[in-house]
């Protein structure tokens, strides 16, 4: 299986920092943004098969 979309999380402000805990609220914002963009691509008629879910 190969990905059809590559989206660096750093583009959404998510950065890896050694020794820091995972930020649940930031991760939720990034996920919401990704799902919104994927939904827009699907509604535009993008023929790639994308599964949205949580």
Looking at this protein, list some descriptive labels.
54 residues; mainly alpha; 1 helix
Helix content: 25-40%
Low-pLDDT sequence parts: none
- SSE order, as H and E? H
In whole angstroms, the N-to-C terminal distance is 20 Å
Global morphology: elongated
Mean pLDDT: 76
Number of strands: 0
| Biggest β-sheet strands, sense, barrel | none
Gyration radius, in Å:
13 Å
Structural class: mainly alpha
**Number of helix segments?**
1
How much strand content do the residues show?
under 5%
Provide structural commentary.
The chain is an all-alpha fold and 54 residues long. 37% of the residues lie in helices and 0% in strands. It is built from one helix and no strands. The chain has one helix at 24-43. It is elongated and about 40 Å long. Residues 8-20 have a biased composition (Basic and acidic residues). Residues 1-24 are annotated as: Disordered.
Task: Summarize the helices and strands and which ones pair or pack.
Elements (H helix, E strand, L loop, with lengths): L23 H20 L11
What's the quick description here?
With 54 residues, the protein is an all-alpha fold.
